[in-house]
Specification:
Helix content: 25-40%
Number of strands: 5
Shape: globular
Radius of gyration: 14 Å
CATH topology: Heat Shock Protein 90
Number of domains: 1
CATH class: Alpha Beta
Distance between the termini: 10 Å
CATH architecture: 2-Layer Sandwich
Largest sheet: 5 strands, antiparallel
Oligomer: single chain
Mean pLDDT: 85
Low-confidence stretches: 133-138
């Protein structure tokens, strides 16, 4: 990850209540940018799913924290959800239906799921604000 400064950043406890706070953050940014309703819905849903994954999967020994960062770059909105937990591992139990990551991928122009600096998982979700489809580039670092 580069030293880019986020336009908005929250460090939250990785709890169910924090998912709503993160959703409100991106909703407010979408409102301020006058993002079309359908795209704003996609941003909110993808952020909710990424945060929920951090809450449910990152810390099997108890909640710690997750970071949510938002970058507005030219015609893109980039939302990063980061935890410092156990990272992504194959599912071994009945903890959800396993639809979160595919849903996130379907909602974003681009998505990158990578190891967070210092360990854990970083989900980088990019949304095109100009209405164009993604160019297929999965690079996760914000410009």
């Amino acid at each position: 990850m580069t030293a880019a400064v986020a336009d908005a950043r929250l460090c939250l406890p990785a709890t169910a209540e924090s998912v709503a706070v993160a959703r409100q953050l991106v909703a407010g940014i979408c409102d301020a940018l006058d993002v079309p309703e359908r795209l704003a819905g996609d941003v909110k849903l993808a952020t909710t799913e990424a945060c929920t994954n951090a809450v449910v999967h990152a810390y099997p020994d108890g909640a710690r924290s997750m970071d949510v960062e938002v970058f507005v770059r030219q015609e893109e909105l980039i939302v990063i959800v980061r935890d410092h937990g156990v990272g992504i591992a194959p599912r071994t139990g009945p903890r959800g239906l396993g639809l979160g990551l595919p849903l996130i991928a379907a909602l974003c122009s681009r998505v990158a799921i990578q190891e967070a600096p210092g360990g854990g998982t970083e989900v980088v979700m990019t949304f095109a604000l100009d209405g164009d489809e993604a160019d297929g580039d999965d690079e996760g670092t914000p410009p």
